[in-house]
Amino acid sequence: MTDSDPPRPSKSALCLHVRKIKTLWLAWISIRSKALRSPNQETRASAIAIDENPYSTLLALQRQLASGTFRFEPQRGALKSRKGKKPRPLVISPLNNRIVQRAILDTLQSNKPSIRERLGSIPDVLYTPTSVGGIPEKGSSNAVHLIRGSIAAGATHFVRSDIKDFFTRVNTAQLITTIQDVTGDANFTNLLRDGLRVELANADKPGVREWIHLIPKRDHRCCAGFEPIGILCKLCASRIG
């Protein structure tokens, strides 16, 4: 959605779930602690301001989402140095963006039957027995349990693999099409597509301009810093598999 597009209120079940105050509240709680401790002064100041009256911010977001007037704000590009490698591109989103992005993520991961039935095959992909990273109520202890089980069953070797610059190689346009196909929800996938677009407010700043080619182009690749990136990578991996 661009600024020239007319507002498009949505009554889709998935969009309704995204904009529920409870969903937005849980999204804020998920990012709050990290935002308040952010080394970036602008992010930290924004988090402090929201934390003084979070309900006011969340209610405003709900109203904008309900009326179709919500717009994701431009982000800031940053680079994370890596010894012996090219810097890793990061996209730092305004907190309002991150709250809505997290609400989208929580909707995609929802255990609520009425929501899961609208997500098609997505829950089956995310909740495979060997999937533990970024899954609610799962973590490193589950991974260790799986490894110990394999060893007990006689496994003696493992395969280590890596996909170079995986985040920036995820074809988000294809994944959006897949999500549209399995959910049949154009409004929800449009919201997800809007949240994935990379529009940098500091693209001309020294230090960013030099490495701007590392930042994914809008609608084509993903970049570290987007809340649902883990889910998109899992969906991408399932297609590779």
Q: Strands, helices and their partners?
A:
Blueprint: H1 13-18, H2 21-36, H3 41-52, H4 54-67, E1 76-82, E2 85-92, H5 95-108, H6 113-116, H7 122-126, H8 140-152, H9 166-169, H10 172-183, H11 186-196, H12 229-240
Antiparallel strand pairs: 1-2
Helix pairs in contact: 2-4, 2-5, 10-11
Biggest beta sheet attributes: 2 strands, antiparallel
Q: Structural class, from secondary structure content? A: mainly alpha
Overall geometric form: globular
Count of individual domains: 1
Strand composition percent: 5-15%
Oligomer: single chain
Mean pLDDT: 81
The H-and-E topology, N to C, reads as HHHHEEHHHHHHHH
Low-confidence stretches: none
Looking across the biggest beta sheet, what order are the strands in? Answer: 1-2
Rounded radius of gyration (Å): 19 Å
Q: Provide a count of the helices.
A: 12
Structure explained in plain terms:
- The chain contains twelve helices and two strands; from the N terminus they run H-H-H-H-E-E-H-H-H-H-H-H-H-H.
- It has one domain (13-240).
- It is mainly α and 241 residues long.
- Strands 1-2 form a two-stranded antiparallel sheet.
- The model has no long low-confidence stretch (mean pLDDT 81).
- The longest helix is centred in the N-terminal third of the chain and has 16 residues, at 21-36.
- Helix 2 (21-36) crosses helix 4, helix 2 (21-36) packs across helix 5 and helix 10 packs antiparallel against helix 11 (186-196).
- Helices cover 51% and strands 6% of the residues.
- Strand 1 and strand 2 (85-92) form a beta hairpin.
- 28% of the residues are buried.
- The radius of gyration is 19 Å and the shape is globular.
